[in-house]
Amino acid sequence: MGFAVGPRLNAAGRLSDISRGIKCLLTDDINDARRYAAELEQFNQARKAQQALMQEQAQAIIDTQSVETDKFALSLFDASWHEGIVGIVAGKLKEDYHCPVAVFAQSGEEFIKGSIRSIPDVHIKDLLDLIDRENPNLILKFGGHAMAAGLSIRKENFAVFKKVFNDFIQAYLNNELPKAELLTDGRLEAFDITLDNAQLVADSGPWGQGFEEPIFYGDFEIVTQRIVGEKHLKCSLKLVGDNIVHDGIAFFQAPIDKTTAQIAYKLSINEWQGKTNLQLMVEQIK
User: Fold this and answer.
1) Which residues cross the membrane (predicted)?
2) Which residue, 86, 106, 214, 254, is the most exposed by fewest CB within 10 angstroms?
3) 129, 123, 12, 51 alpha-carbon torsion, rounded to 10°
4) What are the backbone angles phi and psi of residue 180, rounded to the nearest 5°?
5) How many CB atoms lie within 10 A of CB 101?
């Protein structure tokens, strides 16, 4: 139910109408059930495609932003994004950057709707209360809880919200970037660090609060490293004792002044210029 049925029901609600999923579960007619199930599968494939595109576009926006002005929070908007998927994208970026992330989509001519995913150090509902009290005309409506929230603002106020959001979180954290407590799922053997297993992890999503994407760790040789996008570390990693070299990326990471390190990572898939490769998404380096 969790891995197969849940994501497909969820996709129907995000992209169209959740009643399709309810009908599939309640019908007594096997032919109707199959037809509804086929529609749910189509929704899920469409959700995956749109999510992948939005995440790629969001990363492109982040790569153009300043490290100094956006290090406490990220706020992103694109008029082409689907408001039913912004929460998934915000959750993924929050995990990658370890900061609160607000992702907005167009909602009518004048308004945009956003979804925020936060970190344990920032109670996002309380923070939005503070912002609303001191900026009464900025947020039109909002609601949520400690780790997630939704809100609506005028499209013309996005730049103002972006700055206010970052500034309030910076003050909330007393100008100190939080240190994330990192729990892992243990070590992987060399033969388990594969593109097939990365695909298996991707297919088991969507991941989120209380159902986090697996993180592994190991001792790696750092074969090569270089800075890309002015602030991210692109590297080649080789598990100690193995000969296979893997691509890796660490966001907001300075060059590493050693040749071996204990690295926590996620198995991810990198698609570039029509090629699909395994990439280790580096979460922590010790």
Assistant:
1) none
2) 254
3) 110
4) -70, 135
5) 28
Alpha-helical runs (H) found in 64-176 = 86-97, 124-134, 158-172
> Taking the CB of residue 184, how many other CB atoms lie within 10 A of it?
15
150-170 pLDDT, tens digit per residue, is 999 999 999 999 999 999 999
b/e 155-174 (16+ beta carbons within 10 angstroms → b): eebbeebbebbbebbeebbe
What was the pLDDT predicted at 69? 63
pLDDT number for residue 41: 81
Q: Which residues pair with 139 in a beta bridge?
A: 153
CB 189 within 8 A of CB 263: no
Residue of 219, 258, 223, 224 lying closest to 239 (CA atoms): 219
Query: What is the model's pLDDT at position 67?
Result: 60
pLDDT attached to residue 240: 95
Coil, strand or helix at 252: coil
What is the reported pLDDT for 36? 76
- SS3 of 93, please? helix
Give 5-36 as a DSSP string. HHHHHHHHHHHS-THHHHHHHH---HHHHHHH
Can you spell out the DSSP letters for 29-50?
A: -HHHHHHHHHHHHHHHHHHHHH
Both structure tokens of 144 = 């949520």
- What domains are there in the chain, each with its CATH number? 1-57 (no CATH), 65-181 (3.10.310.30), 190-285 (2.40.50.460)
List the chain residues with pLDDT less than 70. Answer: 1-4, 6-7, 9-17, 66-69, 180, 209
Angle at alpha carbon of residue 110, lines to 106 and 115, rounded to 5°? 40
Dihedral sign, Cα of residue 113, residue 100, residue 141, residue 211? positive
